[in-house]
Design brief:
This protein is an all-alpha fold. The protein has eight helices and two strands.
């Protein structure tokens, strides 16, 4: 058994072997297993105990090898974590080590800084919208733009508007897309409908 190991696994399938033994032989086998796992090096002249114990002994050895591998892997992982974090825990130069006063000052500095608040949206005057539309070389739709968004509570879809200039740029893109040659197809549809008009 490994040093400081306090338990072992005894598999259920040994019942098939134990059922073939008398109670006295099963008790003797169980004692033999306990002596073995406690490193008491049991020795017996009983052939039945030797035969029944051998597969149990081999399984205990395989389990012990597996246990040692897992233990070594876990130990190595712990050492690697410790080494990786050791430089954060221990100062390289004792003269430059942090003390309570340094930490207190650092905290005060952080607490004194106020987080920046995001700009709050404000409704643009019609003149500002007109000037921005002129910068973008758009036709003057400033009053229409302000009236539209005023009527829906300055929302874009279901969300409150954050930047009216972005909304103006979107209006520009939409108005540019409307000037594409879709008017011909609309005219053609009207002609087809008029041909089927019956008085």
């Amino acid at each position: 058994m490994a040093k400081d190991k306090k338990s072992f696994v005894l598999y259920c399938d040994i019942i098939h072997t134990i059922e073939q033994l008398t109670d006295e032989q099963a008790g003797h086998l169980f004692k033999h297993v306990l002596y073995y796992v406690n490193d008491l090096n049991p020795d017996t002249d009983n052939v039945i105990t030797k035969i029944a114990f051998e597969p149990i002994k081999q399984q205990l050895k395989r389990d012990l090898v597996r246990y040692e591998k897992i233990r070594e892997r876990n130990s190595l992982s712990a050492r690697m974590r410790w080494d990786a974090n050791a430089c954060e825990r221990m100062p390289n130069d004792a003269k430059n080590a942090d003390n309570d006063n340094d930490n207190d000052n650092d905290i005060n500095i952080v607490l004194d800084e106020k987080p920046k608040k995001p700009k709050r949206f404000s409704k643009p005057p019609v003149d500002d919208v007109r000037k921005y539309m002129a910068e973008l070389s758009m036709a003057d739709m400033s009053q229409r733009f302000v009236d539209y968004y005023e009527s829906n509570g300055w929302k874009v879809g279901k969300n409150p508007m954050k930047d009216w200039r972005a909304a103006v740029r979107t209006w520009k893109q939409q108005s540019d897309n409307k000037t594409t040659p879709t008017t011909q197809s609309t005219t053609y549809k009207k002609l087809k409908i008029e041909n089927y008009h019956v008085d």
